Amino acid sequence: MNYESTRGGMTPRPFSDILLEGLAPDGGLTVPVSPPRVPRDTLEAWRALSYPELGAAVLGLFIDDIPPSDLLRLTRAAYTPALFGSREIVPLKPLDGGLTLLGLSQGPTLAFKDIAMQFLGQVFEYVLGQRRATLNILGATSGDTGSAAEYALRGKRGVAVFMLSPHGRMSAFQRAQMYSLQDANIHNLAMDGVFDECQDIVKALAGDLAFKSRYRLGAVNSINWARIAAQVVYYFWGWLRMTDGSRSPGEVSFAVPSGNFGNILAGHFARVMGLPIRHLVLATNENNVLEEFFRTGVYRPRSAAQTYATSSPSMDISRASNFERFVFDLVGRDAARVRDLWQRLAADGEFNLRDLQPSFEARYGFVGGTSTHADRLATIRTVHERSGVLVDPHTADAIKVARAHVEAGVPMLVLETALAVKFDATIREAVGHPAPVPAHLRNLLDLPQRVHVMACQPALVRDYITQHAI
User: Fold this and answer.
1) Mind listing the pLDDT tens digit for each residue in 123-143?
2) CB of 111 within 8 A of CB of 142?
3) Is 395 in contact with 418 (CB distance < 8 Å)?
4) Residue 247 — very low, low, confident or very high, per pLDDT cuts 50/70/90?
5) What DSSP character marks residue 158?
6) Which residue of 164, 273, 375, 391 is surrounded by the most CB atoms within 10 Å?
7) Pairing state of beta strands 2-5 and 13-14?
8) Are 324 and 203 in contact (CB under 8 A)?
9) What's the average model confidence in pLDDT over 385-400?
10) Cα–Cα dist 410/413, whole Å
């Protein structure tokens, strides 16, 4: 299994190479040269597997330069009851109105990002150990990626983490999870800007090939293909638990809160691999650039000044990094056309693919919708009253949008973003009381924090990395 760039300027390379590279050398994103297919008989044979075993089976389709026995050892180390609270790892929770919650937030930082990051922590250390190399991870976070990456990589041999976050735009709980870490290999940089500007700095430094090579820069954001591959696993897990093994189509729909497009992109690849997915329901908050594209065919990212600060802050994103991977498929894997579209985007601030709009749902299963602050509050309140489940604001966005797309005979799984405790102010507003805090995190907000606040300028981040890289 080799990987190519969405912009066509990279010789195909194996998984372990692109794991350590992140962004492709030509500025594109890496994708499998030939996405694997899963026959129905194989899919049925996976029903008895535990989550770590299923992880090794699915990831093994994308990774052929790590021996299967080693890969299974890595997934077993990543997905343990001690880290995720139970042997299920990803439990399913029934909600009202024909919806089921795919519980992705049982990990150490209480967010779905833990699923991929715990695997990345294991596979980074494994590959670096094999190569006797070191890596400086540069990432950006709108809330949950940062803490999940840092908890997965803290203390890991040969790895340092430099995580950019938008100063003042995350919840107090999210900030405390990241900034309270005192590990020497963890560096938190709070930038005076929005997430998109943090992400731009990451891309700018990763695109400076001389700097990237000298300081051995890697990525944990979902520009790193390994993140997407690890997230594909839980689509298979959810489908296997919502279907009965009959030879009928057994379609399932998934509703996904979408900001940077990585989580729902994993569902797209699961569908390409042959998983019977009826709809991929894309849910956005007031920053609805992606919803607008699927509704109109026009991709029109907003400026930092036009990006709203909302009560589902991890989705306060206007330029979705992973969208390019989907567009690559959408235009028939034509790298020249992708290059042209992104050049047009840089020049005009938008591009349109209206001619392809009929295929968004008919061929790829995408439908979408938006949710507002008032919608979030109402959804959190009604789900709690009817099901006894307290959901976070991002998951509430997905539930609200999912309700419009429920179909008889087609289970609807809603992907959970985080536990409600991470967004205390919104939960209090919705239900009148705080969410329960896990016992091991009750003093989190009181811990000392270590963070460097700086202007949102690539040169400042470059200088910091120069001084602190391993």
Assistant:
1) 999 999 999 999 999 999 987
2) no
3) yes
4) low
5) T
6) 391
7) antiparallel
8) no
9) 97
10) 10
Closest CA to 371 of 391, 349, 351, 345: 391
Catalytic site residue 113?
Answer: yes
Residue 131 belongs to a domain: no
Query: Looking at the domain assignment, is residue 331 inside a domain?
Result: yes
Task: Note down the domain range covering 348.
Answer: 92-108+230-431
Whether residue 145 is contained in a domain is answered as no
Are residues 326 and 265 in contact, defined by beta-carbon separation less than 8 angstroms? yes
Phi-psi label, residue 102: left if phi above 0, alpha if psi -120 to 50, beta otherwise? beta
Residues 6+ away with beta carbon under 8 Å from 131: 16
Total number of domains constituting the chain: 1
Cα–Cα distance, 17 to 25 (Å, whole number): 12
**Phi and psi at residue 372, to the nearest 5°:** -110, 175
- Cβ atoms of residues 136 and 470 within 8 Å: yes
> How far apart are the C-alpha atoms of 226 and 449, rounded to whole Å?
30
Q: Which of 113, 203, 212, 422 is catalytic?
A: 113
Judge contact between 401 and 283, C-beta under 8 A.
yes
Q: What is the mean pLDDT of the chain?
A: 94
Residue 222 has pLDDT above 90, yes or no: no
CA angle in degrees (0–180, nearest 5) for 153-436-312: 65
| CATH code of the domain in which 416 resides | 3.40.50.1100
Mean pLDDT confidence for 108-114: 93
Q: Which one-letter DSSP state was computed for residue 154? A: T
> What distance lies between CA 238 and its chain's CA centroid?
17
* Residues 6+ away with beta carbon under 8 Å from 344: 350, 351
For residue 443, the Cα-to-chain-centroid distance in whole angstroms is 28
Give domain status of residue 20, yes or no: no
